[in-house]
Amino acid sequence: MKEFTIGKNDAGQRLDRWLAKTIPLLPAPLAQKYIRLKRVKVNGKGSKRDIRLNVGDVLQLYINDEFFDRPTPENAFLSLYQPKLNILYEDEHILLLDKRPGLVVHPDENERVNTLLTHIQAYLYQKKEWSPYWENSFAPALCNRIDRNTGGIVIAAKTAEGLRVMNQKIKDRELSKYYLCVVQGRMAPKEGKLEGYLFKDEVKKQVYVRGRPGPGAKTAVTLYKTLAVKNGLSLVECDLITGRTHQIRAQFAHAGHPLIGDGKYGSERENRKYGRHGQALYSYKLAFHFTTDAGPLEHLNGRTFQVEDVDFVREYFGAWPEAGREPSSR
Fold first, then answer.
1. Annotation marks residue 147 as catalytic
2. Ranges for the Pseudouridine synthase RsuA/RluA-like domain (predicted)?
3. What angle do CA 66, 69, 73 make, to 5 degrees?
């Protein structure tokens, strides 16, 4: 419990607005709940949220100590009262999440609260499965990342053991990540491989594809398969052999088939033609095929997880290809 005495500078404020100013980490819905439960007392009694405070009023706040901390990037999750996550799978060690396009995965200089990682932290904190205030607490972490404007499956570790094993499996390529994208024109051949070397321009935050290696270049290999063709567009499935920054976007643009909606590697004129804002790219399927012992994650071996719906498939092709929708997991 913490106690505050109202001075002249705070007098005249509504109780709920005083709480918002004094405890910025406390979400407004939770503050309202605490007021209703009389965990916020004015002069020893429960009160209403719209009461006006007077000089000399004594407030007793029965609120967890962490909400009184100074806001920092590390505790921003506390301000999320209802974390928004689309969970495909969860067990003791990991989460598989369907990230929506437009959501950044990690806090950065532009956004520290509304990020995938922050929502995960808030979710686990509210489930009482994790807290940064526990001694030697492990922090939930992402095992893979997806660009802000790309949607799809992200793996999050809930435990240190889960993080260690999953990161090793990713490093050893014992899982496959499949993407769907919509590109301009028809791929020739319909199924094949894109290979090259990616050079990254750190200033422009853009990569370039070249046919030969060079200083700073990284190999990039993408297997692709055309699933459907309609109205001059192709729905393509990609299997990433390497996982480089902007790999799919840059390689298809270099091949003469940029992704629709891609403002960095595509054509603005074509994007306007199709009314697409943000690249038509989705990490829609994840398959686990462990060749060595996975310890606490062994139960995932042989399983495949897939998102239920991808908006641009419906928008440009009407439905999933004739082969039909695959199950969410098998």
1. yes
2. 93-254
3. 100
